[in-house]
Specification:
The protein is of the alpha/beta class and about 500 residues long. It has a domain of about 260 residues: Alpha-Beta Complex (Amidase signature (AS) enzymes), CATH 3.90.1300.10. Helices cover about 35% and strands about 10% of the residues. It is built from 15 helices and eleven strands. Helix 8 links the parallel strand 7 and strand 8. It is globular.
Length: about 500
């Protein structure tokens, strides 16, 4: 048996079922790893040690009776955007300081029903607004990877950087995450993990702190495609409390994983060769195309002509919805309250003190594009562009089964390297936002290392609710890429 924290979900589940290990042992090993690493990595903003131990003991009891669920006894981390009953949830914002939900998000409830064990809450950008976790009120999370020959602190991507760091650094077997414009796939690519963004409506948004309601979607970050399929099987499902939840049966995502990519048509969109993309990223993309060919896939060039408008349209739609969603944080009902001479001043003081600069920036942009005289010029036009982007994908999927692209235009960057330039930071999502605008499923898989010795990812995109084909293709490319290295353990406080 390898180190308990090095196991995948599939391996750990097998060991738990055969009684080689117990959930309590597995959970304690991860809690010890968190205790050793979190000072350096800042991945967990809250650990739930006592609750985790109790959940692990309950899992062991069920396993003894042969009643275990698909994730029975598996310790996972939860992005601090998912409401967890009795456990502080802040969206990494001062404005939700001390907020402890009295209810459970549907996604996490599904995971606990499947037997998963909660280790704690994971860092993210404030209200999921960011690409590096540098906007978190708890301070930035640190990527467990380092550039060769340097000790530069690298970002783990965002907004789900805490989730990707915790999985890459072996602090949990998997983590929940959310993706509004690439916030699962981009951090997965920068940390050498697997990030799966399901179709919009596949996982319930109920109980997840909202950023942009028509774009947000929950998904897993794991260390293998198989583990991503297992997690999605538990996370997905219809929820009548979420009006955007789709009432469709949840397939067995693991069933066809090993069918291979032979016979599938893989589309290569020319428009994803964007300005500023690194030569090594393009080279990896070409390698991915070659892997698909060798595995028996048919490669076809496709065109997504409105891709170039996706990023500007996204940064109209997302801030507009954010400005509406964040209007509820006023100091009246929950979270931070900063007194004033009257209720208006109290609102102003609370929001000024509670929101960080990036959140304020997006609220201001969103309020502007929704204001009288600008709604038609900006928001309505962006929604029309969004419809054209979706039409491009619809046409492409008439000819191909999946699309293959890079996930990010460059590898992980250092803290502070881009945070001073919002536009430069927004460009990190240039290869991922189209998927959210169209509501499609996509996955990033680790496929190689940059010249700096840091991970690079390849992205696969499929048609709506065709996660089965998406995961099958991802598994084939994962196999072609071969085992990927883990980051060197420089962060541990124990020998």
């Amino acid at each position: 048996m390898s180190d308990l924290t090095d196991l995948t979900i599939a391996e750990a589940s097998k060991a738990l079922s055969s009684k080689e290990i117990s959930s309590l042992e597995l959970t304690q090993a991860h809690l010890e790893a968190i205790g050793s690493a979190n000072t350096a990595l800042n991945a967990f903003v809250l650990t739930a040690d006592e609750q985790a131990i109790e959940m692990a003991k309950a899992s062991d009891a069920r396993l003894t009776k042969g009643e275990g669920g698909v994730l029975e006894g598996i310790p996972i981390g939860v992005k601090d955007l998912f409401c967890t009953r009795g456990v502080r949830t802040t969206a990494c914002s001062n404005i939700l300081d001390g907020f402890t939900p009295t209810y459970e998000s549907r996604v996490t409830a599904n995971l606990w029903d499947a037997g998963a064990v909660m280790l704690g809450k994971l860092s993210c950008d404030e209200f999921a607004m960011g690409s590096s976790t540098e906007t978190s009120c708890f301070g930035p999370c640190i990527n467990p990877w380092r550039r060769s020959g340097t000790a530069d602190k690298l970002v783990p991507g965002g907004s789900s950087g805490g989730s990707s760091t915790a999985v890459a650094a072996r602090l949990c077997l998997a983590a929940t995450a959310t993706d509004t414009g690439g916030s699962i796939r981009q951090p997965a690519a920068l940390t050498g993990t697997v990030g799966l963004k399901p179709t919009y409506g596949r996982c319930s948004r109920w109980g997840i702190v909202a950023f942009a309601s028509s774009l947000d979607q929950a998904g897993p970050i794991t260390r293998s495609v198989t583990d991503a399929a297992i997690m999605l099987s538990a996370m997905a499902g219809y929820d009548r409390r979420d009006t955007t939840s789709v009432d469709l049966p949840v397939p067995d995502y693991c069933a066809g994983l090993d069918e291979g990519i032979k016979g599938l048509k893989v589309g290569i969109p020319a428009e994803y060769r964007v300005e500023g993309m690194g030569a090594e990223v393009d080279a990896l993309w070409q390698q991915g195309i070659e892997w698909a060919k060798q595995a028996g896939a048919e490669i076809r060039e496709v065109s997504l002509p409105h891709t170039k408008y996706a990023l500007p349209a996204y940064y109209i739609v997302a801030p507009a919805e954010a400005s509406s969603n964040l209007a509820r944080y006023d100091g009246v009902r929950y979270g931070l309250r900063v007194p004033g001479s009257d209720v208006i001043e109290m609102y102003q003081n609370t929001r000024a003190a509670g929101f960080g600069s990036e959140v304020k920036r997006r609220v201001l942009i969103g309020t502007y594009v929704l204001s009288a005289g600008y709604y038609d010029a900006y928001y309505l036009k962006a929604q029309k562009v969004r419809a054209l982007i979706k039409r491009d994908f619809d046409r492409a999927f008439e000819d191909v089964d999946v699309l293959l692209t890079p996930t990010t235009p460059s590898p992980a960057f250092a803290l502070g390297e881009k945070s001073g330039d919002p536009v430069e930071m927004y460009l990190n999502d240039i290869l991922t936002v189209t998927v959210n605008m169209a509501g499609l499923p996509a996955v990033s898989i680790p496929a190689g290392l940059s010249g700096e010795g840091t991970p690079l990812g390849l992205q696969l995109i499929a048609n709506a609710f065709d996660e089965t084909t998406l995961l099958r293709a991802a598994r084939a490319l994962e196999e072609a890429a071969g085992p990927q290295p883990a980051p060197e353990n420089w962060w541990s406080t124990t020998p």
